[in-house]
């Protein structure tokens, strides 16, 4: 849980407006995630996660930026069911859950953004069937896109895994508030960029606690 808390702190420090629920985000429990996210002012969304047949998270968020009304929604991969310990959680078919949400957002907003943890192949299947999504920000299996791609009229953004890059996108509209283009790039977080000292201290502390608890070096950890 300490690692999960650190990740939530990082999301807050980065200024995330909305977070899509990923395949491993309920490894502790959904109560834990909702409670800790709320403490940090973070909003997690998912259209297709149900608990006792009721939506577990808000299906979307609508916000205003630069005079535009933006709708952000998310779909969670079915492999979530393999990582959650709560047997009353059900991962609904993404297409069935998403289609009515996109239809509603199209009526209410200028821009519809989908956060997806399905992976590239499943994303393309979804976009072929659900129309009206302007931008898809994808994670999971697939090719990283160093500049925006496009599929079935939807712009595609796909960063590196495990926070190895920061994505930058500029969304352009015409005078009639219609989406004109999406330009962007991936900034790879190489050693050329200075570390955030506050986060580094938290990572070091987590590493030391984990090492002390296990009595051995932590695989994949590289302390100074």
Question: Would you give an account of this structure?
Answer:
The protein is an alpha/beta fold and 224 residues long. It has one domain: Purple Acid Phosphatase, chain A, domain 2 (4-Layer Sandwich). The strands form 4 sheets. It has a 6-stranded mixed sheet, with helices on one face. A 3-stranded antiparallel sheet has the order 4-3-7, with no helix packed on it. Strands 1-2 form a two-stranded parallel ribbon. The radius of gyration is 18 Å and the shape is globular. The mean pLDDT is 88.
Short descriptors:
three-stranded antiparallel sheet, 6 helices, alpha/beta, Purple Acid Phosphatase, chain A, domain 2, 224 residues
CATH domain class name = Alpha Beta
CATH homology superfamily name: Metallo-dependent phosphatases
Number of domain units? 1
CATH architectural grouping: 4-Layer Sandwich
Short summary:
The chain is an alpha/beta fold and 224 residues long. The chain is built from 6 helices and 13 strands.
Q: What order do the helices and strands come in, and which of them pair?
A:
Layout: H1 2-14, E1 19-20, H2 30-39, E2 44-45, E3 49-51, E4 54-55, E5 60-65, E6 68-75, H3 80-83, E7 89-91, H4 94-108, E8 111-116, H5 120-129, E9 135-138, E10 149-151, E11 154-157, E12 165-173, E13 179-188, H6 197-214
Parallel strand pairs: 1-2, 6-8, 8-9, 9-11
Antiparallel strand pairs: 3-4, 3-7, 5-6, 10-11, 12-13
Helix pairs in contact: 1-6
């Amino acid at each position: 849980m300490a690692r999960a808390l650190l990740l939530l702190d990082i999301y807050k420090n980065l200024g995330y407006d909305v977070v899509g629920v990923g395949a491993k985000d309920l490894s502790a429990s959904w109560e834990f995630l909702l409670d800790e996210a709320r403490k940090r002012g973070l909003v997690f969304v998912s259209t297709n996660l149900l608990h006792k047949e009721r939506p577990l998270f808000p299906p979307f968020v609508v916000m205003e930026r630069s005079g535009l009304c933006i709708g952000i929604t998310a779909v969670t991969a079915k492999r979530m069911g393999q990582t959650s310990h709560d047997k009353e959680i059900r991962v609904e078919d993404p297409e069935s859950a998403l289609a009515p949400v996109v239809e509603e957002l199209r009526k209410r907003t200028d821009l519809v953004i989908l956060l997806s943890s399905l992976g590239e192949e499943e994303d393309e299947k979804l976009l072929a069937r659900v129309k009206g999504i302007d931008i898809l920000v994808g994670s999971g299996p697939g090719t990283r896109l160093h500049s925006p791609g496009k599929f079935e009229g939807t712009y595609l953004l796909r960063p590196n895994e495990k926070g190895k890059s920061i994505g930058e996108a500029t969304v352009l509209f015409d005078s009639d508030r219609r989406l004109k283009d999406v330009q962007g790039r991936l900034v790879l977080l190489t050693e050329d960029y200075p570390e955030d000292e506050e986060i580094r201290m938290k990572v070091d502390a987590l590493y030391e606690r984990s090492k002390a608890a296990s009595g051995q070096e932590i695989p994949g950890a590289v302390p100074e």
